[in-house]
Amino acid sequence: MIVENNKVVTVHYELHLTNGDMADKADDSRPFSFVHGAGNTIAGFDSNLAGLKTGDSFKFTIEPADAYGEYNPEEVVPIPRSIFMVEGAPDDILHVGNSIPMQDQNGNTLYGVIAEIHDEHVHMDFNHPLAGQSLIFSGTVVGVRDGSEQEIALGEVQE
Hints:
By secondary structure, this protein is mainly beta. The protein is built from 3 helices and 9 strands, in the order βββαββαββββα. The protein is elongated.
């Protein structure tokens, strides 16, 4: 069976950045399964696996535009330090590099990384951690099967 839309695909992979650092890994202990074509993976991932079959190896690079986008400096925003005190955030979590859950005006949770701390403001970076990065995937397709009606409708693997 080949990888195509509405198939449940299971892969083992290693994800490396261009500097050689491993950013993620899916293996026997934590395989990655998804409904191909459901739009729940980065765009370049689905397209590079299309046409492969169980047992096939793969290696491909996904550029930022087809992954998590380019790094956007406008996603680094100053937030008044007083906001953190209203939320009851202790000072010990306010340090550069710490990831903090925040809520937008609609109540959605967003994660931001503290980029800078000043007396009056904390600069939060809301870019995806892999924004601006080329992603190098290498691995093996370990399973392909027909998606159930529910999996196709939901776009999620039901196991």
